[in-house]
Amino acid sequence: MPVATVPLTHILTVTPRSRLVRIDIQGVCFEFQPGQAVMVGEHGQPEQRPYSIASSPEQTTETGLLDLLIAVEDNGGLGAHLGSAVPGMFVDIEGPLGSFTLPPLESHSRVLLVAGGTGIAPLRSMIDHMLRRPPTPRISLLYSARRGDEFAFIDELQRHADAERLELHQTVTRDQGASWSGQRGRIGRSHFETVVHEPTDTICFVCGPEPLVNESVSTLKALGVPESQIRTEQWAR
After folding, report:
1. Whole-angstrom Cα distance, residue 123 to residue 38?
2. By CB neighbour count within 10 A (0-12 exposed, 13-18 middle, 19+ buried), where does 193 fall?
3. Which of 19, 152, 37, 28 lies closest to 87 in space, CA to CA?
4. Are 5 and 91 within 8 A, CB to CB?
5. Closest Cα to residue 216, out of 228, 204, 198?
6. Is the pTM of this model over 0.90?
7. Tens-digit pLDDT profile for the chain (237 aa)?
8. Cα–Cα distance between 37 and 32 in angstroms, integer?
């Protein structure tokens, strides 16, 4: 895969535990599919890590920026592979990589997306891409986070839901505060029963921690979704 050295332009706080890192790829030939990832590391350093691309190809073409959603580590940084991680620093990117991508959707009228934590990143790319290409399938998103303030891109997703372009369901796993009035608990069968409308006509994409991915696959199959229509991606955080 080709390697490009490009500047990091923005580090934006999107939740208390994640940052939106934007990389300027103007002038670089970098084509990718919604759902794919990229290897990233500070320029000249040997260590790189993979991150799903959070922007759609169309968004990246419009802005010249590649969006990555990166979890904050316990020390408050983004990891040794990104060093000081400040706007203006150069990073090496390699890719794209991964097969967690959208197939032709003509044969499926419904798309179900399941995200845990920063697993929302590739699904955001998929959502924007699908919404730009009519006829748009009926899209449902089941999104789990630890706390009510840890849903990345939630304003954008809520706008899609308000416009009835997306069916959005959220649940928190650790937030016991009174400020959260939505669903609680780990994603389980009751959550899936809310969003699985036509099992045999639904293609599913699941991205998040391993326990969420494994349980989601088991539940979807139990509800009648064919295994061949379930695509998964696992991230550690």
Report:
1. 15
2. exposed
3. 19
4. yes
5. 204
6. yes
7. 678 999 999 999 999 999 999 999 998 889 999 999 999 999 988 899 999 999 999 999 999 999 999 999 988 889 989 988 899 999 999 999 999 998 887 777 899 999 999 999 999 999 999 999 888 889 999 999 999 899 999 999 999 999 999 999 998 887 666 566 667 778 889 889 989 989 999 999 999 999 999 999 999 999 999 999 999 987 654
8. 8
